[in-house]
Design a protein that fits this description.
Layout (H helix, E strand, L loop, with lengths): L1 H20 L5 E10 L5 E7 L1 H6 L7 E7 L4 E8 L5 E9 L5 E15 L8 E11 L5 E10 L8 E2 L8
Antiparallel strand pairs: 1-2, 1-3, 3-4, 4-5, 5-6, 6-7, 6-9, 7-8
Length: 167
């Protein structure tokens, strides 16, 4: 699954660039993945309209892409989670009019945040928000990192397992 996610993530600039070249404006495309197999190893990507997606039972959809072609940019909203619901990722990729990636915002939510000031305490729901910017020389750098309690939204000092993301 990791290899497939990486391949799909690498194709995102191509999707955005293609939309810009076609002059697509204010158009939305949605894709979701159906997982099957004992370890959810079989993947089948499907394309649906936004209206069809809203009507679907989304409780078994663990990966989803929404591509919004706007007047001067393309935004790709990606979400995925574990089937157990232990953690959830939401990523937003923003491309400029030329099809170049300009910004990534990542929100990771887990139920397993461990308080570094009190490691023996119960684990708590934790949100990690990160923002990345792309320089004019096309270097991706992190511009923001905030760890907060998912319930109170207050900044906290916690550690947690977070899957590695390749951007």
């Amino acid at each position: 699954m990791k290899i497939y996610l990486l391949i799909f993530a690498l194709s995102i600039p191509l999707l955005a660039d293609d939309a810009v070249k076609k002059g697509a404006e204010n158009r939305v495309e949605q894709f979701y993945c159906v997982h099957s197999g004992e370890h959810y190893q079989h993947l089948l990507w499907k394309k649906v309209s936004p209206m069809e997606f809203r009507k679907m039972d989304q409780s078994t959809i663990y990966e989803h892409f929404k591509i919004e072609h706007k007047d001067k940019s393309t935004e790709i909203h990606r979400s995925y989670s574990t089937p157990s619901g232990d953690w959830f990722f939401e990523l937003n990729y923003i491309y400029n009019q030329k099809g170049n990636l300009t910004k990534i915002t990542s929100t990771f939510i887990t139920h397993g945040g461990i308080d570094l000031n009190n490691p023996e305490a119960d684990v708590k729901p934790t949100t990690h928000i990160q923002q990345f910017e792309v320089s004019p020389k096309k270097k991706l750098t992190q511009s923001k990192s905030l760890i907060q309690d998912s319930n109170t939204e207050k900044k906290v000092n916690r550690t947690f397992y977070q899957p590695k993301m390749k951007h």
